[in-house]
Amino acid sequence: MDFLDKNDKQAQNEIASYVGRLLREAFGKGPQSVFVSISRPYIVIYLRNFLSPTEKILLRQDQLLSIQHTRDLVMRSLIPEIKAYLLIHTDMKICEFYYDWALHNQSGVFVGIGSNDDCNLAASVQKGYVGKEALHQEIDQISHQIQKSPEEIYSCMINERTLLVVRQGILISIGKEFIRLGFEESLKIAERNLEKRYLHSNNTHFQNILNSKVIDVFADWDFHLDKSIIVFILNPSQ
Phi and psi at residue 131, in whole multiples of 5°? Predict the structure, then answer.
């Protein structure tokens, strides 16, 4: 089945409508807009203006952790539904699923990574783009400051507005021990706060490397796979 090659735009529109409806039912308010980008084996779903009235009140009171915790609980039930929908409508078996929020921008991102059968992974990550080598060096330095240099970094420019970076092998021994002791959520919160602080502080540098304005930056981890993703949302016209 080569559904995406024939009906790519239709598939993306259907997925966007479905995700918007699913989030509206789960949170009481859905995102104002949903942008779906597919480049096998990757699918990136970018959400804009997604913050409920209750969350806005909590955000004004600096209750970010409360919002993140509640969203994490809801996402645990939604992820299997999203994976099942993507399998039906794209024929992609999503083996890895990541998500993150930029609450200050009222935005968010979902990232699905399909199985190796979905396409030639090596071909997709070997495609070049402006600043690729310099970006990998910058990501390596940030990773080294927080934990350690990744064993592997690869990236893919999904489209001119969506850049996905994947890191493999970043956990150090103390992080693995936190996970073994059941503190995975606390570790993820600490990682997210630290890493996104570095990513945002280097925003201008990233823009110079990529020759594009960075609108949003997201990051998430799968500690059991010892993998992490970073998504840059770009505006190449600025």
Answer: 85, 10
Is 46 in contact with 233 (CB distance < 8 Å)?
yes
Prior bond of 41 cis (ω within 30°): yes
| CA distances from residue 137 to 134, 142, 158, 172, 234 in whole angstroms, order as listed | 5, 9, 20, 20, 19
Helix residue ranges, H only, 51-172: 53-60, 64-90, 121-126, 132-146
CA 125 to mean position of chain CA atoms: 16
pTM of the predicted structure, to 2 decimals: 0.92
146: helix, coil or strand? helix
Q: What is the DSSP string of 91-111?
A: ---EEEEEEEEEGGGTEEEEE
pLDDT along the chain (238 residues), means of 10: 56 94 94 94 96 94 92 96 94 95 96 75 69 95 92 94 96 90 89 88 87 94 95 86
